[in-house]
Description:
CATH architecture of the largest domain: 2-Layer Sandwich
CATH topology of the largest domain: Ribosomal Protein S5, domain 2
Amino acid sequence: MTLPTSVEEGSKAHRARAVGTGRAHAKAILLGEHAVVYGTPALAMPIPQLAVTASAGWSGRSAESRGGPTFTMTGSASRAVTAQALDGLRRLTASVKAHTGVTDGQHLDVSLDGAIPPGRGLGSSAANARAIILALADLFGRELTEGEVFDLVQEAENLTHGRASGVDAVTVGATAPLLFRAGTAQALDIGCDALFVVADSGTAGSTKEAIELLRAGFRAGAGKEERFMHRAAHLVDDARASLAEGEPEAFGSCLTEYHGLLRGAGLSTDRIDALVDAALQADSLGAKITGGGLGGCVLAMSRPERAEEVARQLHAAGAVRTWAVQLRRSTHER
């Protein structure tokens, strides 16, 4: 399909394709938060049941008459709308148009309906960006490669969070758990079925604030950064091996130890620690904060028969909602 490059051509495209749609989902980092920004590997998994859908269409009005695209937010996405967020979405739309060669002056209407709570370390900003990028590409009649989508999402993430590792940009479009290392992702080798309970603490974290707090801690003492990265890399490697060998107890221990690493760096909170303790007391195999820190969600690895009790104890400890995420054994040859 020829891309619209003028108002007239845009009108023709509008008649041929009235609405474009795009979809993405949440993610959780299993291990590797913060260290991944410095090049250490990270393990992450998609959370497909927490999805966001975007739609985009030509309104027929000129873009100049309305000062850029109009955005409508519903669901959890609406609670993340601030002037800064809207400015980021407008920049993202401009980037997609420039990347796809669409230069027409028609006004765009973009809507976003999401179930991913913002500020919880679940990748809401990356998922929103991916959904919008795919919706615009669909509207423009352009098929983007995964590499192109990643670059556009990453551009948006860097504007939102500062220096982004890229793990969110990849995992919100992934269909299986990933090992993310040095800017590339590959499927994780999983030797056992597992079940994770994700618990929302009800308080939003701040990735930017957490990053700055961690950097300040590194500057406060010689060798702190090296020790943090060494320990993080060791735990990620042990966890990856445990998962591949089908050893959930060993993997769970790595989760809990990684939480201790983040807590020691000042990135946890009393509420988060209470949820981790509740999960462990409910016989979870391991538990930790997931995401940037200073709020957000707790991730607990559970035996399937204990998952309901783990969720109950997490709610009793203050979780406002929980989700169960199944991790299934790899079907490929190991």
